[in-house]
Write a structure and sequence with these properties.
Blueprint lengths: L8 E5 L5 E7 L4 H13 L4 H35 L7 H7 L5 H16 L3 H16 L2 E3 L1 H22 L13 H35 L1 H14 L7 H5 L4 H7 L17 E3 L16 E2 L2 E2 L5 E5 L7 E5 L7 E4 L7 E2 H13 L31 H17 L4 E8 L3 E8 L5 H5 L2 H8 L5 E3 L8 E6 L8 H5 L2 H4 L6 E7 L4 E5 L6 E4 L6 H15 L5 E6 L13 H4 L1 E2 L11 H25 L4 H9 L14 E6 L2 H8 L1 H13 L5 E7 L9 H6 L2 E5 L4 H8 L12 E5 L5 E5 L4 H12 L8 E2 L27 H11 L4 H8 L3 H13 L19 H8 L4
Parallel strand pairs: 17-21, 17-22, 18-20, 19-25, 20-21
Antiparallel strand pairs: 1-2, 3-4, 5-6, 7-8, 8-9, 9-10, 11-12, 12-14, 13-14, 15-16, 15-24, 22-23, 23-24
Length: 851
């Protein structure tokens, strides 16, 4: 029996799939393989362009950093570079103060001092734009970029030489470079200083006129209006460039851009809509001077004798679109007319109509805490100021001023140091200041973003309680226009902090035990319950601890979603988690199909179109509520489920935001094996409570800080930008009970929001808890997959996806079938499956038992 060949040949299989022992070549001739290789380099895979683009971008970034370092340390490093007593590169690098290295210093010395001065900025810009174009996120007109950068480099060099003439002694290099200085001196001798400046201004104006279309249009509009004897339609004709200019501008166009009519932008994002140029009315498609209607289109002659035609388009979801070519601005559809009529008669569709008497919770349900304004101790603040000042002065760091901003639990002291003080010195004294103040959790922000000060966050001796009631009643939360507003608490400046979960769009919550993580989740849920109607919001809650979310089971028929047939709406068993997550993936796919049929891009546009009665419910359209998935103790699920849990969560995080599904996962174990790279990449929103070490803080926030929090709701929030310190609002268990009871006592829907059922064969992993699978109903790829898995000894769904190019659901179904056939073992958490069949002979005995 022949073995599976991994080289250039493969066994020929007979009708039953058994190897016949003959070998055939795989991949074709050497010429064909060579052709495919080069097509991969320059074709769809774009290996060479992406590589060159990455090199260009890296070179541009290196040049920019080298230029900035040259401005700061170039005076000293330039003399080191030219010192004849330091012949070796190692000696020069040791003597230099800057961090751009000998190469960066030498490059900037040559380009700035010897060549073009400040004009090097346009050289950097040119390499950056060329890199962006080759990498692919934007279209770049390469010839135009190079010509524009060359002219701009020459102009800036000459301008710098002329403009900084009187203050040239301030610089350690020629501002215009040797090129700019030479050209300036040559022109000054011949045309004088006035002539030089006249030439500089002329080059600037001509460059702007040549490369920017809007400037040309504005100038032509003004000039044509001023010209005597202008035609009556001068304004419309001035908006269109002349034919001569069209021929001239094609010289700048790339071949794939010759059909476009926008020569203004050097760099155009791919997702930007192209400019539409007004043209005379033409048929949709012409072939041999005959009107050819596209799919779902019929051409009907008009009733009058005029040559105008009426195009009737029957779309998938919009019944009839009637367009009269005589008036292109009056495009009206019969579906829109019917929708407008329905809106006039019955108003827009109101998703709250079924529960029209539902009363939103009132603030009196939540407990009212004393704000403890008397707890703000002026003597404490002044004493802290004195201690901070004395501590810094003991290290010879002078202070110009120090101001305090008192928050509920943290006071921010803004320090303005004397000139010449290194910020890094103050940052390194964090522990010394903490010891002098006898306080824990001091955090130094050096500098504060947007301010010229250094911030020191010091805990108050008598912290205030930030009540959920005060946050809910705040003007910022009440007047918030966010889709899913979450009032998390108050910042260190005592301002209410509100963020939009729909824009976050997914949130990772982490923190040690007892530091306020569960209270933070309750604050998020409470904010959403106070703002959104049951018809607009649904929760899917997963609680392995069985106690955190059990209170919300009472609002099952109002705000909860679950699989049909499930008894408990709060998922507590790890075996049920997998099926629920797969069901949410199916819900996501179904929603994307509805959005595609409605020709919209996100749930907000879809629901607005449905409210305006432009979508037909008989064709499957319905109002889509937002779904918020909340998972507590995600680390415990990862230990029991592993990849089977991570895969659907990652898929939801990657795609679900546009269809209104948002995920919040919480864990008290911020480990790299739990918060994996896939999770961190797709969860830009991070909420970190106090952790035990700086390593844990880096895993959560990609920065230090969470290890210096004081606990009891003290947290750091980020969406990828700056860290915001927030004192989380406190909502106690009795308050949650009262809120849930208030909602549950009102009339709800007949049942919880049903999630789509997942067929047993679509279950991920080896678990068969969701149903039974017919062993005889095998996938058509089953035999090929079985042979490949046994030969390569890699029983994994991801490997099947990679080799056979199938989706995750189909690969998981094949894994279940392999388990039923006895080829692989059952799933055991995040451990790899056991391969029960190790040879082809054993496999063929299973595949062909009657032979």
């Amino acid at each position: 029996m022949s073995k599976v060949n991994k080289g250039r040949t493969k066994p020929v299989e007979n009708r039953r799939g058994r190897s016949s022992g003959q070998q055939v070549a795989v991949g074709g001739s050497l010429r064909e393989r060579t052709t495919r290789f080069f097509r991969g380099l320059f074709g769809k895979e774009r290996v060479v362009p992406v590589t060159i683009g990455a090199l260009f971008m890296a070179f541009a970034i290196f040049m920019l950093y080298a230029f900035l370092s040259y401005l700061i340390n170039g005076a000293a490093d330039q003399s080191v570079l030219l010192d004849q007593n330091l012949p070796t590169v190692e000696a020069q690098a040791e003597a230099m103060e800057g961090s751009n290295g000998v190469v960066g210093m030498g490059l900037m010395h040559q380009m700035v001092n010897e060549w073009v001065g400040f004009g090097v900025l346009f050289v950097i810009l040119m390499f950056g734009m060329l890199g962006v174009g080759m990498l692919g996120p934007a279209r770049v007109n390469y010839p135009k970029v190079i010509i524009f950068s060359s002219i701009s480099t020459f102009w800036l060099s000459l301008f710098s030489a002329a403009a900084f003439r009187e203050v040239a002694g301030w610089f350690f290099f020629y501002p215009g470079g040797f090129l700019g200085e030479t050209i300036y001196q040559w022109l000054r001798i011949r045309v004088g200083i006035f002539g030089v400046w006249l030439l500089i201004i002329l080059i600037l104006l001509l460059t702007l006129f040549l490369f920017f279309r809007s400037i040309r249009q504005n100038y032509n509009n003004w000039a044509m209006r001023k010209r005597e004897g202008a035609y009556q339609d001068v304004e419309s004709s001035a908006k269109r460039p002349s034919k001569g200019w069209l021929h001239f501008k094609r010289w700048f166009k790339r071949k794939d851009q010759e059909m476009e009519d926008d020569d203004e932008l050097l760099l155009v994002p791919d997702n930007e809509e192209e400019e539409i140029v007004d043209e005379p009315t033409k048929p949709i498609i012409t072939l041999n001077d005959e009107i050819v209607a596209p799919a779902n289109t019929a051409v009907i002659p008009s009733e009058d004798s005029s040559p105008a035609t009426t195009i009737v388009t029957v779309a998938d979801d919009i019944d009839i679109l009637v367009t009269d070519n005589r008036n292109m601005d009056d495009e009206v559809t019969t579906a829109e007319l019917r929708a407008q009529q329905l809106v006039e008669e019955h108003g827009e569709y109101d998703p709250r109509l079924e529960l029209s008497r539902f009363e939103m919770p009132h603030a009196d349900i939540l407990k009212k805490y004393d704000q403890q304004t008397e707890a703000i101790d002026i003597e404490e603040i002044e004493e802290n100021k004195r201690l901070i000042t004395s501590t810094l002065e003991s290290f010879r760091i002078g202070i110009k001023s120090i101001n305090a901003t008192v928050g509920p639990a943290i006071t921010l002291y803004e320090v303005v140091p004397d000139e010449g003080i290194l910020i890094s010195r103050i940052r390194s004294l964090e522990d010394n200041i903490s010891m002098s103040l006898s306080a824990m959790g001091i955090r130094i922000i050096a500098p504060i973003p947007g301010k010229g000060t250094i911030g020191m966050e010091v805990p108050n001796k008598n912290p205030q309680i930030v009540s959920m009631r005060s946050v809910i009643l705040s003007k910022k939360f009440i007047e918030s226009a966010a889709t899913l507003p979450v009032a998390l608490g108050r910042t260190i400046t005592n301002e209410v902090f509100v963020f939009d979960l729909a824009k976050t769009p997914h949130l990772l919550v982490a923190g040690a035990t007892g530091q306020g993580k569960s209270v933070g989740l309750n604050a998020i849920i409470t904010s959403l319950l106070y703002k959104l109607h049951p018809a607009e919001l649904k929760f899917v809650m997963i609680d392995p601890k069985m106690v955190e979310f059990s209170l919300y089971s009472l609002i099952e028929k109002h705000y909860m979603a679950k699989l049909p047939g499930e008894e408990q709406v709060i998922i507590t068993e790890p075996k049920r988690v997998q099926g629920t997550l797969e069901s949410l993936c199916v819900e996501m796919d179904d929603r994307y199909e509805l959005l595609s049929k409605a020709h919209v891009r996100n749930i907000k546009e879809y629901n607005q179109k449905f409210k305006e009665r432009l979508l037909n419910p008989e064709k499957g359209h319905k109002f889509l509520p937002y779904i918020v998935l909340i998972i507590d103790e995600y680390g415990d699920l990862m230990l029991t489920g592993g990849k089977e849990i991570e895969a659907p969560i990652t898929r939801l995080a990657q795609k679900a935001r546009a269809v209104g599904i948002h995920a919040i996962i919480a864990t008290q174990r911020p480990m790299a094996s739990i918060i994996t790279g896939a999770i961190k990449a797709n969860f830009p929103g991070r909420l970190a409570f106090k952790v035990s070490s700086g390593i844990d803080s880096k895993i959560i926030l990609d920065a230090q800080g969470a290890n210096r929090l004081i606990g009891r709701g003290d947290s750091l929030f980020t969406t990828g930008n700056d860290l915001i310190r927030v004192q989380c609002a406190f909502v106690d268990t009795p308050e949650v009970n009262d809120l849930v009871r208030f909602i549950s006592e009102q009339r709800g829907f007949s049942e919880a929001y049903p999630l789509p059922e997942v067929r047993p064969e679509m279950s991920v992993g080896g678990g068969l808890a969701t149903g039974e699978l017919d062993p005889n109903d095998r996938d058509e790829l089953f035999e090929a997959v079985a042979k490949r898995v046994v030969a390569d000894k890699r029983p994994a769904a991801s490997y099947i996806q990679q080799i056979f190019g199938v989706g995750y659901n189909r690969a998981s179904r094949l894994m279940v079938q392999l388990e039923y056939a006895g080829i692989i073992g059952p799933a055991d958490g995040n451990k790899p499956r056991e391969l029960l069949v190790t040879t082809i002979e054993q496999l063929e005995a299973i595949l062909y038992p009657n032979d």
